[in-house]
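Async update (no meeting this week)

Hi team, since we skipped the sync, here's where things stand on the single-chain job. The sequence we agreed to prioritize is pasted below, unchanged from the tracker. I ran it this morning and attached the output directly underneath so nobody has to dig for it. Comments welcome in thread, and please keep replies under the output.
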Amino acid sequence: MRRFREWEYWARPLPGFGDPRARLWVIGLAPAAHGGNRTGRIFTGDRSGDWLYGALYRAGFANQPTSVARDDGLELDGAFVSAVVRCAPPDNRPTPEEGDRCLPYLAAELSRLDRVRVFVALGGFAFTNVVRMLRATGDTPVETPRFGHGTMVRLASGRTLLGCYHPSQQNTFTGRLTERMFAAVFASARRLVAS
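Output:
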């Protein structure tokens, strides 16, 4: 969006965040323009982040339920959070081309997160691109992956991909995603990580 181009933080790439020994990897679409893009940490300083870090806290993956700034004391234990696209996309809708350009960065994170057992993809775009990344690295789904909230896909490596509606205001304000539904995905992730 042109009106934000003069802002100091606009369109800067954003790395993932969390425990380098993570067994759970949560992958969203892209940084929020005035959330993670502004604060410098993914899912920080916006309502989606409030939902995500609250759920991670309740599932035992975070030391606090909120994150408003990079230096607010949030620490993840056994979890890592990132996004398919590394810069805030126009109109908050990443294109397939942006996914293509950023996929190597996602694959590079995967090579460093060698203990991951469970992936949670937030939204259909993230789900599709996580499947693409996994196939490109040789970890093929055992069955045909189809996105849906609560979808569980077993991978050839024995790892698991969980589909989850994105905690965007569009989903949470309309009731398409409730806190109970969101918590259930992270409860499943907790059980899978422990098994």
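Quick observations from my side:
The domain at 16-194 is CATH 3.40.470.10 (Uracil-DNA Glycosylase, subunit E).
The beta strands are 17-18, 24-28, 79-83, 118-122, 152-154, 160-164.
Reply here if anything looks off.
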